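HUMAN: You are asked to prepare a plain-text protein record giving the amino acid sequence and the backbone structure tokens, both parts labelled.

ASSISTANT:
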Amino acid sequence: MRQALGGAQLSNQAGRRCMSCWGGTRCPIIPADEASCVAVIVRWTGLLIGAGAALALGLLPLLLAPDALQVQRAAVAGAVALLMIVWWCTGALPMALTACVPLLAWPLLGVSGGGAVADLRLAAEPFFDSYTGLYLGGMTIGVAMESSGLHRRIALRVMHIIGTSPARLLLGVLVATALVSAWISNTATAVMMLPIASALVLQMEGTASKRGLPAFATASLLAVAYGANVGGIATKIGSATNSIFAGHWERTSGTPLAFLTYSLAAVPFLLLFLPLVWWVLWRVARRDAVDAEAADTALREQLGALGKMGGAEKRTALLFTCACALWIFGDLLRPALNAACAWNLEAKHYEALVSLSVATVLVLLRCVSWPLFRSMPFSALLLLGGSFSMAAGLKAGGATEAAAAGFSELMGTTASLQMLVTAAAAVLLSALASNTATITLLVNVLPLKLPLMLVATFGCSCDFMLPAGTPPNAIVYSTGRVPLRTMLACGWRLDLAAILVLWAYGCFVIQPWFG
């Protein structure tokens, strides 16, 4: 157990390092001293490339079309967006600081052509979007679950229900992690589930041979990383990428996307893809002979250590259930609320109201510990606002239409080819850049089609191959119990499977249902 707790401490540190964008990200492959040098080189290279590319794109229309003001505004908007995306991808500046670039750029460059006041409003208003409130409330609910231990109880109960045979135990780790990750951040989920999986493996290894259970341990830890990555797909608050997509879609299309509607599109994909993840991991885990009785004993000990639910945990469970019910049945309840209060709430306003109301009650009832509340990633709110502000500037400057037209021609005319290219771009780009930078890029260049954007959003959470690809991957790899060769072998198969499943799912499910 001591080793498991030590692994949790190590994973927590790895998570903080991986999420840090200033001062470099510690690479799990390169030694620490060399990794810091590489990070500095990448950061400065990103600063220079981003600034140079943006300057070239912004000045090009002045040379080729000096009298075309609309073309110049579109080029300037595109240049600022290019600068932000390069800086996000390379970690040249903290992501939250890069997100604030539009606050200066749009008024100074006159991107909308409507004057400084209009440009300032264009830049600042998206930072107060309803999706920012929805995500803030969702983070607070997640922190309350962490403070009370409710997330741990849910995970262990799910694992116990699925079963304790070796194959089912591995499936239980994967499903429980994905379920928790649907409501709290993937990094927090990985940090929480890692000691649970490590403790179970350590207790089972006590009854195993001298060789231990290296294959089963590797598969179990990878199940934590992969479950945390894909579990966030399930709900609009599960990942910042989902909120960026949903906010962009509603702003550009004018069509609301309800909480339940999004989940109806996302959850079936998870039901299709999670068995594939389990199958790939089970091919690794089955190399060890796991004692099913020892697994059952280990899981029961973990459950027994929880004890009875305390007052804070009960209150959190009740309020969390209420929030889920209000979100799911929002399309039925919102018209009645509008009629009763003489309001005109749209779907995103209603969902943000529910999220912030439940979060406020949780804080007032002291279900959220102050240390955990302070540790919340508030910079993610700036990231959301910056993404929305960048999109607003691109639209006002006319760059969105030009980029969408060019990208549409590049992909061809068939819907099937567009789905395949979108899925491949999302999965592969998210392996090289953060998923938030990837989705911000894709939603601004893709044609305004809901099926394509949904496929892109799901694909941004499907990176499995590289240790530094996502925080959960880095956290799990930092334990030292996951060989790089095994992660790469499992990861490339799942990356390829994700592209193919997303392509088929987009063509045969999302397109008919949401096209």
